[in-house]
Specification:
Layout lengths: L4 E10 L3 E4 H5 L6 H8 L3 E4 L7 H16 L8 E5 L10 H9 L5 E5 L5 H14 L6 E8 L9 H4 L4 E11 L4 E9 L7 E3 L10 H5 L5 E3 L1 H22 L9 E4 L4 H11 L10 H4 L6 H9 L8 E8 L3 E8 L3
The protein binds oxa(dethia)-CoA.
Length: about 325
């Protein structure tokens, strides 16, 4: 019998209805559509509005739709890995909250924090439970309500982020499809360039931290850009080289959607033509953990069984990585 791989057997996503356009941002900060479009590729992003709604409220419709597509009940799920940088609460884990909301009574779960690389870290760790034979159905969710940590007075960051959530189901595959390899990396010295200053144990919330607007994502954009543009491209090229994959062998590049210029650099480095590169940043912006599942969801109907996909991401931490998978359906 051939080796068991963890294959994606269903994908679904949810984005909130409200659309924040570049034109509306022009009324909020000193910016313009031309600057945002040429520097980032973003035209609009979805925002979760409504009192008391958190990241799990986007995960519920995403996962319920996924279960319906796959024709299984929530009670069949063994494990939920919730990749997020904006959990509903500091504790308990949003995975637990989601399990309760969808009725996944037989699942255990945990949250995974690796900023924009989180979904790839989640795929790689979730696949281990399938390959080992420990579990049969692992749900990997990537979702963020970035609007909850975005400073809408800072034009350098508020134009980038959006809200959304995507999910995939991992199941065993013995046909040679599924997750074949992953390369994951982190470098904690990058913390200075991209972080949230307050709200953690080092600097708990106080009147002072709120007044100083320290509960938002802080980013030194140019520095992050330099690391992202080389590392994301290099790691995608590395996983192709070590698996002896040429650009002809790869059907799709699925890059984290942080900046169109970073995506283009990754495509160039891997030698992939534009028609193989999945880009939807113009409609969603940077949804952090949700960018890659949103791409898989939107392109699902174009994928063919056996297609080689290269996923690549870079994010705060720094964290970055690449996953090589063969589409299973
Ligand atoms: O998701 C994972 C990690 N994050 C990333 O990968 C993001 C990486 N970084 C970026 O994508 C880019 O650095 C940004 C999109 C955030 C910024 O683009 P940039 O080309 O690096 O701009 P910059 O920060 O170097 O700023 C250039 C100029 C500055 O003006 P001066 O000093 O040259 O006069 C900024 O003040 O553009 C100005 N600027 C803006 N102008 C209009 C910054 N933000 C805006 C804005 N509208 N929204």
């Amino acid at each position: 019998m051939s080796k068991i791989h963890a294959a994606i057997t269903a994908v679904n996503a949810y984005v909130p209805d409200y659309i924040l356009t570049n034109q509306e941002l022009e009324t909020m900060v000193d910016t313009n559509d031309e600057w945002i479009t040429t520097r980032t590729g973003i035209k609009e992003r979805h925002i979760l509005k409504g009192e008391g709604l958190g990241t799990s409220d986007m995960a519920v419709p995403a996962v319920n739709g996924l279960l319906k597509k796959r024709g299984i009940g929530a009670d069949e799920i063994d494990l939920i890995i919730f990749c997020t940088t904006t959990p509903d609460r500091v504790f308990p884990a949003t995975a637990n909250i989601l399990a309760d909301k969808i009725g996944a009574k037989n699942a255990w779960g945990y949250d995974l924090q690796a900023a924009c690389s989180g979904f790839l870290f989640g795929l790689a760790t979730g696949s281990q439970f399938i390959e080992s034979g420990k579990h049969k159905k692992v749900l990997v969710v990537g979702g963020d309500k970035m609007s909850s940590i975005t400073n809408y007075e800072d034009r350098a960051t508020c134009i980038i982020f959006g809200d959304g959530c995507g999910a995939v189901l991992l199941e065993p595959n013995d046909e040679g499809n599924g997750i074949m390899d992953s390369i994951l990396k982190s470098d904690g010295s990058g913390v200075q360039y991209l972080h949230q200053k307050a709200g953690g144990s080092m600097r708990p919330a106080s009147h002072e931290t709120v007044d100083a607007r320290e509960h938002y994502a802080y980013q030194e954009g140019q520095a992050v850009f330099k690391f992202a543009v080389t590392n994301m491209a290099d790691v995608a090229a590395e996983i192709m080289e070590r698996n002896h994959l040429s650009s002809d062998d790869v059907a799709w590049l699925v890059p984290h959607q942080a900046n169109k210029r970073i995506i283009d650099a990754t495509a160039n480095r891997t030698g992939l033509s534009a028609d193989k590169v999945i880009i939807n940043i113009e409609r969603y912006g940077n949804t952090t953990n949700a960018t890659i599942p949103l791409c898989l969801w939107e392109w699902e109907n174009k994928f063919k069984k056996g297609d080689v996909l290269i996923l690549a991401a870079f994010g705060g931490g720094f964290t970055w990585g690449s996953v090589y998978l063969r589409w299973a359906y």
